[in-house]
Structures are given as C-alpha cells and as structure tokens.
C-alpha cells in the first residue's frame, strides 16, 4: 500500500511540475496558399449617354413634319422637325406692313418739318425789319418744334415695330427645328399632327445623344462611398454580356444623395467607351470599384481570423489573432492582413505558406458559408 501511495503522489507531482500545453481544439483547419486577390466595392448602376440634349419647341403650333427616325445619325444644323409657320408668317407680314405705313407717315411729317423750318427762318428775318409781328414769329417757332416732335414720335414707333418684327421673325425661325449637335436620335416624344403648347413649359419633341461614350450612374451606399475616389479604376458587367467586362474610371462623385426606402445612396459617374455600340441607354450594370489587387500572394480564408487587435496596424495592415495548428499543438499568433474580400485575406506577415490555421465557426465576420477551395481565385463576387 505504501508503494502504491508513493507512485500516485509521484505522478501527481510530475503533472503539476510539467508546463501547461494547449490541446488542439477539434474542428476544421485551413492553410495559407498563393492566389490572386482583389478588394472592391460593388454597386448597381444604370447606363445613360454622357452627352445628350432634349430637343423641344419654343413656339406653340401644330407639329407638321418630323424628318428623322429613331436610330438615325444626324449632324449639327440638320433640319429635324417643322411646326406650322402660317401664324408667325402672318405676324411678320403685318409688322412689315405697319413699318411701311409708319415710314410713309414719317416722310410726310419730315416734309412738315422742312416747311415749318422755312417759315420760321423767314419770319425770323422779317421780325428784324418788323415785317411780321412777334406773335406770328412765335407761332412759326411753335409749329417747327411740334413738327419735329411728331417726326421723332413716328420714328420711335417705327423702331418699336421693328423690334416686334425681329421677335416675330425669330419665332418664325423657331418653327424649323435644327439639331444643336452631332448625335443619334434615341427617343421621340411627340408625333406629327400633335399640337405643341410652349406657353407654360417647353414641350420635348425628340432626344439626341452621342453614343460613342456612355456614362454609368452607379448608386453607392454611404458606408462605401468614402472609400471611392476620382479616377479610381472600375469595371462592370451587364445582363447578357457573358464574361465581358467594360473598363472605366470614376469621373465624379455627386455630393447630394438620394434616399430610397431610408437608404442613403450616392451617385457615382463612370465613363466608358462605346464605339462598338454594344451598350444601350437604361441597361442595368453590376459595378466593381477596385480598391486594390495583388497577384500570387499568401492568402488566408477569412473564417480563420480571430479577434482584431486595435493599435497594432500602423503601416502594416490590420492585425488579427489566429490559431496556428502544428501537429497536436495550437499556438495563438498575430497576423497582419492587407487586402480582404468576403472569402480571403492577404497575409502580410505572421504566417508562412503552408501554415495551417484553425477555422473559427464564430469569428468577427460571423461567416456561415465557408469554402474549402485549396487555391482561391480573384476574390471577385459575381452577378
């Protein structure tokens, strides 16, 4: 009995004096492997022409003729449509006749001025020799001044009617609608025979657009818009485009948001070349704003990342705790992460290729869909 008690005591003392070792926690493990990674911000967008103009009517009248059809290419200055010009032509003719009448009156009045001037000059000479009375001289002076004033009034009336004539001629010119730029007719809002009322609002007849360059108006959530910048690389796909990607750059981030169902969205404009005319107005796009990308770098699935450490990412990326598995042992290490997607993170330091790390079922990302890909792809979400 004494020998047995001594053996038990010796065993307990041995276990007490041995350093504590962590046992491997059962569960899935993942390894650090080489791959490509691309971190991006995704958004939905709509295509529209970069340059377009709504061609409207500046005068009221019946739309007599439209000379182009949807899809036609037009040149600046080309006649597009004709509004009934008869009312405006009649106004121009009336103004011109009124001017001729006033000019005739002015000619007669100018003759009166000449006659009054002659009487005034003659009476002024006779007054010196007392050939006329002072009253007759004053009457001739009054007649001269009155004749000159009447002539000036008629001249002012002529200028007024000439101004009206210029306005009516301008309106008559507006009955012919010309293209203001080179482009393609992409939409028609009015039909031949329709009466256009331009008294309150400008009625739109058709729309011209330059389709060689299109603009995507992407709506980016407020949580992501601060990560974007001007001239940032971006690509997008469209429904039905297959694997084709269109490349572009951010032209502008509009400062005023749109609030849709209490969600704050900012419009980001991206220009793209469309000389092959594959992109059309109104198409939906899936946008990928490229924050950064790297090829053949060490990658770790994000479900292996543990607690994020604050204050330890000064120029070295974000710091996380991970559990490195080595045989039956599990060792806690700090790893610095660079680019990151929903599936993978770029390892900057702390782990080497081939290292196996314990996956977390409840990590900071709370990822529920873990993938077992041995080599990750580009980390790019698809449509």
From TrEMBL:
- Pfam families per record: Beta-barrel_RND_2, BSH_RND, HH_MFP_RND
Q: Where is the Multidrug resistance protein MdtA-like alpha-helical hairpin domain?
A: 100-175
Q: Coiled-coil ranges per the record?
A: 92-119
Top-level taxon of the source organism:
Bacteria
The Gene Ontology biological process terms listed for this entry are: xenobiotic detoxification by transmembrane export across the plasma membrane
The similarity annotation says: Belongs to the membrane fusion protein (MFP) (TC 8.A.1) family.
Question: Which species expresses this protein natively?
Answer: Methylomonas koyamae
Q: Where is this region: Disordered?
A: 358-383
Q: Name the InterPro entries on file.
A: Beta-barrel_RND_2, MacA_alpha-hairpin_sf, MdtA-like_BSH, MdtA-like_HH, RND_pump_MFP
The residues covered by the Multidrug resistance protein MdtA-like barrel-sandwich hybrid domain are 52-206
What's the name of the protein? Efflux transporter periplasmic adaptor subunit
Domain CusB-like beta-barrel: start-end pairs: 216-287
């Amino acid at each position: 009995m004494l020998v047995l008690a001594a053996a038990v005591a010796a065993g307990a003392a041995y276990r007490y004096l041995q350093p504590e070792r962590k046992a491997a926690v059962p569960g899935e493990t993942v390894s650090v492997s080489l791959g490509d990674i691309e971190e991006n911000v995704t958004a939905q967008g709509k295509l529209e022409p970069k340059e377009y103009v709504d061609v409207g009517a500046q005068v009221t009248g019946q739309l007599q003729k439209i000379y182009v059809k949807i899809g036609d290419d037009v040149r600046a200055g080309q006649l597009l449509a004709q509004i009934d010009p008869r009312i405006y032509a009649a106004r121009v003719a009336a103004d011109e006749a009124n001017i001729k009448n006033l000019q005739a009156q002015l000619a007669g009045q100018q003759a009166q001025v000449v006659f009054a001037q002659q009487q005034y000059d003659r009476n002024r000479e006779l007054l010196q020799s007392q050939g006329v009375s002072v009253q007759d001289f004053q009457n001739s002076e009054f007649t001269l001044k009155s004749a000159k004033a009447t002539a000036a009034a008629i001249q002012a009336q002529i200028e007024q009617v000439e101004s009206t004539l210029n306005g009516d001629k301008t309106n008559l010119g507006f009955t012919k609608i010309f293209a203001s730029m080179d482009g393609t007719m992409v939409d028609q809002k009015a039909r031949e025979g329709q009466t256009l009322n331009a008294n309150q609002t400008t009625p739109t007849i058709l729309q011209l657009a330059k389709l060689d360059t299109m603009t995507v108006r992407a709506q980016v959530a407020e949580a992501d818009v601060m990560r974007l910048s001007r001239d940032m690389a971006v690509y997008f796909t469209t429904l039905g485009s297959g694997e084709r990607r269109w490349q572009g750059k951010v032209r502008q981030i509009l400062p005023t948001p749109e609030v849709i169902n209490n969600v704050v969205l900012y419009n980001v404009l991206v220009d793209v070349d469309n000389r092959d005319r594959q992109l059309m107005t109104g198409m939906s796009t899936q946008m990928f704003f490229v924050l950064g990308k790297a090829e053949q770098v060490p990658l770790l699935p994000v479900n292996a990342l543990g607690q994020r450490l604050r204050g330890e990412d000064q120029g070295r990326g974000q710091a996380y705790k991970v559990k490195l598995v080595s045989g039956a042992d599990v060792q806690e290490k700090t790893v610095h992460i660079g680019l990151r997607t929903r599936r993978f993170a770029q390892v900057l330091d702390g782990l080497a290729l081939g290292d196996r790390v314990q996956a977390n079922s409840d990590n900071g990302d709370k990822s529920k869909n873990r993938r077992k890909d041995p080599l990750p792809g580009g980390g790019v979400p698809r449509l």
